[in-house]
Design goal:
- There is one protein chain.
- This protein is an alpha/beta fold and 266 residues long.
- It is globular.
- The N terminus and C terminus are likely disordered.
């Protein structure tokens, strides 16, 4: 499916739908939508939301980011990103959890514990929805990636599964730039400083592809109090996402196509 962003705008939005069929009567996993004519010709940036179905602000923030990119194509910052990158947006990774407003999927799996991580490819859980996200990341090997969550106000970088100082200046810089753009109530932390998590998305993308992969915790609350609160959350998330992509664009690639050369695994 393809849609034009606006009258007189030469860029197209192409939607490549890959779905995990949800429970009967539920919509399938959404996305990804690639904001570019031909994604294969461009370096990739990936955003996803709603790994946890009770984090209700995350799909709204993802749709707000899509709206910002599509409706502001003449802004220099947006135009440069759309011209150079294929931007993948997956608003709802966990459709059954979202429908039930529950953290886990219909089979009771936590989708953000279902990715391989550097411990002999062990997985804490497995889930078809996470497998689709993993397949996309393996296909596009994104330069940058962000997973939207809620429950705090922070921008987190890997690792989440163990305590180790990575010494990755680009990773920490992207985190701090995004947190600063989101406002004084947001802080940049290594993920494990928040809490230990085995098998999360950001750890996998960073480990396997050298992706500058972050987690945005976009709100202290999972259940939204009112529309005004949601407007503030989506506005701060769009600001942080744009700052992240702009910082990413200013980082040089290494000869292998990743920001830094890394040895995969342990």
């Amino acid at each position: 499916m393809e849609a034009w962003p606006g009258p007189g705008t030469p860029r197209r939005t192409s939607i490549d739908v890959r779905s995990k069929l949800a429970e009967p009567g539920r919509p399938p996993t959404c996305g990804p939508g690639a904001l570019k004519g031909d994604p294969k010709d461009s370096p990739a940036i990936d955003f996803n939301g709603t790994h946890h179905g009770d984090e209700l602000a995350t799909p709204e923030a993802m749709l707000a980011l899509a709206d910002h990119l599509i409706t502001h194509p003449d802004e220099p910052e947006v135009a440069k990103l759309l011209e150079k990158y294929a931007i993948y947006l997956q608003p709802v990774v966990n459709p059954d959890g979202l429908a039930a407003q529950k953290r886990k999927n219909a089979e009771g799996a936590d989708l953000n514990r279902a990715y391989p991580y550097p411990r002999e490819w062990f997985r804490f859980e497995t889930a078809p929805e996470a497998e689709l996200v993993k397949d996309l990341v393996d296909e596009i090997s994104p330069k940058g990636a962000v997973a939207f969550h809620s429950g705090a106000r922070s921008v987190l970088w890997p690792w989440g599964y163990k305590e180790e100082t990575l010494g990755d200046a680009n990773l920490e810089l992207a985190s701090r730039v995004a947190a600063e753009a989101m406002g004084p109530n947001f802080e940049a932390l290594q993920s494990i400083q928040d809490y230990k998590a085995f098998g999360d998305f950001a750890d996998y993308a960073y480990w396997r592809h050298g992706t500058i992969a972050l987690t945005f915790e976009i709100s202290n609350w999972q259940i939204l109090a009112n529309v005004g609160e949601l407007k503030e959350i989506v506005a701060t998330t769009v600001r942080g996402s744009m700052a992240f992509m702009t910082a990413l664009d200013r980082m040089p690639d290494d000869p292998d196509g990743n920001l830094l050369t890394r040895t995969l695994g342990e």
